Amino acid sequence: MNVIFHIDDSKKWPTLLNNVQHFREWLQAQSDNSTLEVLINGEAVSDAVLDSPIDLSLLARTVNIAVCANSMHQRQLTKAQLQDGVTMVPSGVVELAQRQHHGFAYIKP
Hints:
Elements: E1 3-7, H1 13-29, E2 36-40, E3 64-68, H2 69-74, E4 86-89, H3 92-101, E5 105-107
Parallel strand pairs: 1-2, 1-5, 2-3, 3-4
């Protein structure tokens, strides 16, 4: 079961990170190698940069993490400022729609 987790509100990081962890644990118990992705847009993109208190590097080892280029541009953030393992997609809303079109379940805390 492929899943995309969506965050656009910085206050939701604790919930999102717990949701992802619990889902990963469940997948491991099922010996399931499904794809998990976190899509970050809106204000939450500011938490994906190098000096953020939210450390995404460990998560990025087992989960695809994508940030919205439009949201980055609106906040004058660049790809070079992103934490290791975080990728940029042209549009967060398009990424969400494409993933759902390809059968990903959608979770937003």
